[in-house]
Specification:
The chain is 59% helix and 0% strand. The chain is mainly alpha-helical. It is built from 8 helices and no strands. It has helices spanning 11-21, 25-40, 44-51, 55-68, 88-103, 110-121, 127-136, 153-162. The protein starts with 10 loop residues before the first helix and ends with a helix.
Length: 165
C-alpha cells in the first residue's frame, strides 16, 4: 500500500479550531477524520475504526480535502430533489389553479392535471408522478361509498322493513 499524500501545511491547527466550532455529529466526524490523520498520522483503516466509518469513506473524504480544501467540510446536507422536474414552489403555484376547482366542489381528473403538468415540464411523465405530487402536497382521494348503478333504493328500504329476521 502506498504512502498517502501529506495534508497541506497548517491544516492541523485549522482542523483543531474547526473541531471546537462544529455543531452536528456528521460535521464533527468529518473534521475528526482529517484531524486524526493530520495530528496522529493514523492510517485510513485506523481512522475508520476510531470514528466508526468505512475505510473507503475515510479515503474518499481525505482525497476530497486534498483536492478542494476546507470547502468539503462546509458541504450542505445530504439528499435533495435531484430528479425533480420543477421546484416545490412551482408545484404549489401549479396546484393552486386546481385547488380553486376543488374548493368549488368540482371533481378533479388526474389525466387533466397530467396534461397540464406535461405542458409546463415540456415532456411526457407517468401518471404516478402526478399522484406523488398530489400526495406530497397533502391531497387525497375522497370517494363516496360504492353502490351498484342499477340499485333501487326504494326496494332496498322495503326489504329492510319486511325481511324476516
Amino acid at each position: 500500500m502506498r504512502k498517502p499524500a501529506p495534508l497541506p501545511a497548517g491544516s492541523k491547527e485549522s482542523l483543531e479550531q474547526l473541531l471546537k466550532k462544529v455543531k452536528t455529529k456528521t460535521q464533527f466526524q468529518k473534521v475528526q477524520c482529517l484531524w486524526l490523520r493530520a495530528s496522529l498520522g493514523l492510517s485510513s483503516d485506523d481512522v475508520a475504526i476510531a470514528i466508526g466509518w468505512n475505510a473507503s469513506s475515510v479515503r474518499h473524504l481525505q482525497a476530497l480535502f486534498l483536492k478542494e480544501g476546507e470547502a468539503v467540510l462546509q458541504a450542505s446536507k445530504r439528499g435533495g430533489r435531484y430528479r425533480a422536474n420543477i421546484t416545490a414552489d412551482e408545484e404549489n403555484t401549479f396546484l393552486a389553479s386546481f385547488l380553486e376547482k376543488s374548493v368549488r366542489g368540482e371533481i378533479l381528473v388526474v389525466s387533466k392535471i397530467k396534461s397540464a403538468y406535461e405542458k409546463i415540464v415540456g415532456h411526457a411523465v407517468p401518471k404516478s408522478t402526478i399522484y406523488r405530487i398530489l400526495a406530497r402536497h397533502g391531497w387525497r382521494k375522497i370517494t363516496p361509498r360504492p353502490h351498484h348503478p342499477k340499485a333501487d333504493v326504494i326496494l332496498q328500504e322495503e326489504f329492510k322493513k319486511n325481511s324476516p329476521k
